Amino acid sequence: MRKYNSYYVPICFFVLSVLGIMLAEVSTSFILGELYSRFIRNGVFLLALIPPIMAGMGINFSITVGAIAAQMAMVVVIDLGLEKTGGFLLAIVLSVLFALVLGNIIGTVLNKAKGKEMIASMVIGFLGTNIYLLIFMVGYGTVIKPFSETTLISSGIGVKSMLDAARFRSLYEGVLPIRVGNVSGSLVPVLAVLVLGLAVWGLTRSKLGYHMKAVGEDQTLSEKAGIDVDRVRKSSIVLSTVLASLGQLMFIQNMGVLNVYTGHLNLDVFSAAALLVGGATLKNASVKNAFIGILLFHTLFIVSPMAGQNLFDNVALGEYFRSFLAYGTIVFAFVVNLRRESEA
């Protein structure tokens, strides 16, 4: 019976998704088109949560800092006025470099907060956001001199709240074209997400992956076995931060616009909720959980406003349900996880 407990959450949300689709009365092509876009924009964020869970650190809410690294890189590239392929490649390089530095800092801090990593990572996410806002609202235009004045607001201090990234949206245009539902796009970003998923899957079967699992199971025994526990834990956070930065780059590229101050907000909660919907726990997560979760969670996320409109004649209820869905999923998953532990 315990074998089937891991399917409680996915089955529950599958049923809710089916009910939501029926109530929303939307076409299959609309849902498939939205899922295509959301798979590209959000898939890598779920993958970013897997390494810290493997290492026994729970949900890494500081992936927002990884997203901030990507946004800093994009601001620099847009400020330089670089176009398409060259600009996006530079954004990837800068994003990864920023993420490596920030990931090492976060990993060091979380190693000082053993047993309380999830709370600590949440606080780090908030702190990182505020430092980032201070730099780009006040520092840019004063301490940091921009290459182009067009990136600044009219006062000359602070970056505009939205920057045009449309030049990168057409990056894959005409390359492996596909049509999913009512959306025309490219197979390239889908393959990119799948390749990163394959890389994370390979990580779980590598030497580092086995060390992460060992540390996640028992840190004391891992130390006795000669594993550098702190180093493994830090490596998982660095990988998580780098993956999150790549995920945010894909999000910006797909949207064609950079929301400088709000683009990274809430992605940690929604990503955690989606991963848990896929059947992951606070101690065990896989690539399969990530891909199942993004399909189930975002299907319900897509149809909930229209279902609320049709059921209660009030679309606002559907919008509120989205927030309830994200936070409620995490609470529900916590309860199920605690029940599993008590039965073990």
TrEMBL record:
PANTHER family according to UniProt: ABC TRANSPORTER PERMEASE PROTEIN YPHD-RELATED-RELATED, SUGAR ABC TRANSPORTER PERMEASE PROTEIN
Alphabetical list of InterPro entries matching this protein: ABC_transp_permease
Protein's UniProt name: Branched-chain amino acid transport system / permease component
Localisation per UniProt entry: Cell membrane
An example Gene Ontology molecular-function term: transmembrane transporter activity
Keywords: Cell membrane, Membrane, Transmembrane, Transmembrane helix
Keyword Membrane: yes
Extent of the signal sequence: none
Transit peptide keyword on record: no
Transmembrane segments: 6-32, 44-68, 88-110, 122-143, 183-203, 263-282, 289-308, 320-338
Membrane topology: Multi-pass membrane protein
A single GO cellular-component term on record: plasma membrane
